[in-house]
Amino acid sequence: MNRQELIQQIKAKQSFLCVGLDTDLQKIPSHLQGAKDPIFEFNKEIIDQTADFAVAYKPNIAFYEALGPRGWESLAKTLEYIPKDIFTIADAKRGDIGNTSGLYAKAFFETMDFDSITVAPYMGVDSVGPFLEYAGKWVILLALTSNEGSQDFQVTTLQNGKPLYQEVLEKSSQWGSPDNMMYVVGATRGEKIGAVRKIVPDHFFLVPGVGAQGGSLQEVAKYGMNKNCGLLVNSSRGIIYAGKDKDFGKAARQEAKILQAEMADLLALYSEL
Ligand SMILES: O=c1ccn([C@@H]2O[C@H](COP(=O)(O)O)[C@@H](O)[C@H]2O)c(=O)[nH]1
């Protein structure tokens, strides 16, 4: 999916919601546990109930690869089931020496047909470049993450006086463009989202951390939104585990609907969409 199509989806749905498919076998309602593929059945119901409010789905690959071959199969079926006009994110946080990154890119962009993949910047340009060689696909680079540990390295001041995350943004924004690169910026980093937006005014941000991690959607929009929205805000546990029983899909729908309504107000306030 290209940038214009993504912006169009956001405008049409008045939503910049990404639903995180962090599907944990232990948390799936008991009535699905006997199914042939409980993970897929769970995801199918979540997708059916939230597709009209979501512009992106983000399966976190750890939840699938932890189960071995059957996890990969559930992931492939889920990806196939997601409506084609909805953006897909493989949250895999990959990146390695060039030839290895090339195979990660092939795995997620060819063997599976994801629109985008999250990539770690630590190994530099030759580790990110292979993902950018795929026309129509996106790299979502970790910039300022939502976890506590983001304070260990990402905000460290370098000899040139800049925090490491700023150096990552400035350098990596030369490798790609707002048409094929996005950045992960955690919702829990409210005060810094504005600083990131100043460095990369046009790039989309994937923003995890609202819902279960307590980040504020209002703050994210206030500091991070640009005229084209420029945000995909993810909620995983807050949506998919909103209900625990047979009605889990309806509960997920309700949570997604609440977020979409807030997003529509924020789009009216801060964007041109
Ligand atoms: O900085 C980051 C980068 C990625 N994540 C991932 O996003 C979701 C968040 O899930 P919630 O249940 O909504 O907290 C999850 O897949 C993380 O691995 C992140 O949280 N922070």
UniProtKB/TrEMBL annotation:
GO terms for molecular function: orotidine-5'-phosphate decarboxylase activity. SUPFAM superfamilies: Ribulose-phoshate binding barrel (SSF51366). Keywords: Decarboxylase, Lyase, Pyrimidine biosynthesis. It comes from the Bacteria. The active site is at K93. Pfam families: OMPdecase. SMART domains: OMPdecase. It catalyses: orotidine 5'-phosphate + H(+) = UMP + CO2. Residues 16-252 form the Orotidine 5'-phosphate decarboxylase domain. Its EC number is 4.1.1.23. InterPro entries: Aldolase_TIM, OMPdecase_type-2, OMPdeCOase_dom, RibuloseP-bd_barrel. Pathway: Pyrimidine metabolism; UMP biosynthesis via de novo pathway; UMP from orotate: step 2/2. It is an enzyme of class 4 (lyase). Belongs to the OMP decarboxylase family. Type 2 subfamily. This is Orotidine 5'-phosphate decarboxylase. It comes from Mariniradius sediminis.
